[in-house]
Design a protein that fits this description.
The structure is a single chain. Helix content is about 30%, strand content about 25%. The protein has 14 helices and 25 strands. A 5-stranded parallel β-sheet has the order 3-2-4-1-5, with helices on both faces. The protein has a 5-stranded mixed β-sheet with strand order 7-8-11-9-10, with helices on both faces. Helix 3 crosses helix 4 and helix 12 runs parallel beside helix 13. The longest helix is centred in the C-terminal third of the chain and has 18 residues. Bound molecules: S-adenosyl-L-homocysteine (SAH). S-adenosyl-L-homocysteine binds next to helix 5, strand 9 and strand 11. It comes from Bacillus kandeliae. Pathway: Cofactor biosynthesis; adenosylcobalamin biosynthesis. This is Precorrin-3B C(17)-methyltransferase. Keywords: 4Fe-4S, Cobalamin biosynthesis, Iron, Iron-sulfur, Metal-binding, Methyltransferase, S-adenosyl-L-methionine, Transferase.
């Protein structure tokens, strides 16, 4: 009978994280060979097996013994913690086989059973620190020259990889982690988040969140994996999180805008995501190449030569208009827009009488100030409330302007479940089409008419439902505030006001009536 070698990675150490195939493989085998501590960890699964447990540094003799028994026709499980192919026994066993001229066709059978490696198990306890391009580096110079390890730390430090350091420190090896920290501080901020996970998913599990500057003040040992964030990794509520990509958008309301599920993976939001068609080279790649070129040229580069300008820069996105009623840009304002956009930014005119500016910058506050000084009304872009007023016939029908301005001041830019446009028109002509906005307000004979829940887009578009006529001017602002508050509180994410009205049937006492056109229409190809 032909023997078999089963190279089993049993994961971090808890039973729940051992794969089904790994358990079966242990059951199948006649011999179990492994490092003493590991054999103890999986004791429950190997009862009645012939066990050969050896000391820490006896990997080579373990591999040789395993091959010997397999050649005698036995099934031999060689165990590794984590994954057998990550600083584990898989490679060593192959090395022994290769030396003996082994071939798959006629030699002993070999099966490698994958396991959860420390980079994954430890990351899961820290949050989502890996996420982006990452690497593992073992700091053990037992089998690898330190000069090579040093070179690798330097290269990945420069190229901004997330790094998982395996074998960071032992009783005798204490310098390596100090050196690793020193090298990485050449490229990364002292505040870079660092996670220290000891004995993940084992009895004495310990998770510590710290920084690159402070990491050595904590206990690090042979059972620790050190995960070092990249330049975008942040800590939030005791979680270490690395964003999926580098370019983040600033809007006016918050600095780090988490994307909603429906916004994800769109080119404009996540330019790093996979898209059909031709892909631009990711900036990280260029950066990596730059770092490698620099490393090639000169061994000891001063830290300041490797800069990361594109990395910390974000796209500042803001909607700009010359006023609530005013629709005219002055020449000076156009100059300011052009200066703010610069070479790299874009200026887009939207169907909502807004100009949207998208500018890569590290200093959005400065741009905000410049725009405000030029007399622009600026508001965030996205699922926010926007006031769209008519021009009140260039001020001839000006009576409703103060109400429009008050609404802008109180509600403009408010974050909501979905974009919401309030249209305010100064006379019954309503030529800026307030009735087609989510909330339409029309000033007529000194009082306001109110329209709710237009469906402004799509082939089943319809005007808003006329819900009230002759509202006293003093009541209009508080009434709109109550409607918006109810929608903000009870609307589902991504639920536009017309859908919300249809679902809840009553907003602030106004009853829903179906305004949808009664025609059968095939769904539009781009969704309707
Ligand atoms: N084959 C293993 C790695 C073996 S090298 C794997 O894929 O995970 C040993 C190193 O792995 C340790 O020094 C430590 O850095 C890491 N490690 C393994 N198991 C771990 C655990 N449960 N918790 C934290 N780190 C662990």
């Amino acid at each position: 009978m032909k023997g078999k070698l089963l190279l089993v990675g049993f994961g971090p150490g808890s039973e729940k994280h051992i794969t089904e195939r790994a358990k079966e493989a242990l059951q199948e085998s006649d011999y179990v060979i492994g490092y003493k501590t590991y054999v103890e960890l999986i004791a429950d699964f190997i009862e009645g097996k012939e066990v050969i447990s050896t000391g820490m540094s006896e990997e080579v003799s373990r591999a040789q013994a395993a091959v010997k028994y397999a050649e005698q026709g036995k099934k031999v499980a060689v165990i590794s913690s984590g994954d057998a192919g990550v600083y584990g026994m898989a490679g060593l066993v192959y090395e022994v086989l290769v030396e003996k001229g082994w071939r798959e066709a006629d030699g002993v059978e070999v099966e490698i059973i994958p396991g959860i490696s420390a980079i994954n198990s430890c990351a899961s306890l820290l949050g989502a620190p890996v996420m982006h391009d990452a690497c593992t580096i073992s700091l053990s110079d037992h089998l690898t020259p330190w000069e090579l390890i040093e070179k690798r730390i330097d290269a990945v430090g420069a190229a901004d990889f997330v790094i998982a350091l395996y074998n960071p420190k032992s009783g005798k090896r204490t310098r390596q982690i100090v050196e690793a920290q020193r090298i990485l501080l050449k490229y990364r901020s002292p505040d870079t988040p660092v996670g220290l996970v000891k004995s993940a998913y084992r009895d004495r599990e310990q998770v510590i969140l710290t920084t690159l500057a402070d990491m050595l003040e904590h206990d690090i040992g042979m059972l620790t994996t050190v995960i070092i964030g990249n330049s975008t990794t942040f800590i939030y509520d005791n979680k270490m999180i690395t964003p999926r990509g580098y370019q983040r958008k600033y809007t006016l309301t918050s600095e780090k805008q988490p994307l909603r599920p429906h916004e994800r993976l769109k080119r404009e939001n996540e330019p790093w995501a996979l898209h059909e068609g031709k892909e631009e080279a990711p900036p990280l790649f260029e950066l990596g190449m730059k770092a490698l070129r620099l490393l090639d040229k000169e061994k000891d580069i001063p830290a300041k030569e490797v800069t990361f300008p594109k990395l910390i820069e974000s796209i500042f996105e803001v909607a700009v208009s010359p006023g609530v009623a005013n629709k005219k840009f002055s020449a000076q304002q156009l100059l300011v827009l052009s200066a703010v956009a610069g070479e790299e930014g874009s200026v887009e005119y939207t169907p909502h009488h807004q100009i949207i500016l998208r500018v890569p910058t590290e200093n959005p506050q400065q741009l905000t100030l410049q725009l405000q000084e030029a007399g622009f009304i600026i508001s965030p872009v996205g699922d926010v409330l926007a006031i769209k007023a008519c021009d009140f016939c260039d001020g001839e029908k000006k009576d409703a302007i103060p109400y429009a301005e008050e609404l802008q001041e109180r509600l403009g830019g408010m974050e909501l479940p979905k974009e919401l446009n309030i249209g305010i028109n100064g006379c019954g002509m309503a030529c800026y089409q307030a009735v087609n906005d989510d909330i339409g307000i029309v000033f007529r004979k000194g009082k306001f008419d109110l329209f709710l829940g237009a469906k402004p887009v799509g082939r089943t578009a319809h005007a808003g439902q006329p819900v009230a006529e002759g509202i006293e001017p003093a009541q209009i602002v508080p009434l709109i505030e109550r409607i918006v508050a109810e929608y903000k509180e009870k609307g589902h994410p991504n639920e536009r006001l017309f859908k919300f009205f249809k679902r809840v049937k009553n907003i602030q006492g106004f009853e829903y009536r179906n305004m949808e056109p009664k025609i059968m229409i095939e769904p539009a190809p781009c969704g309707d």
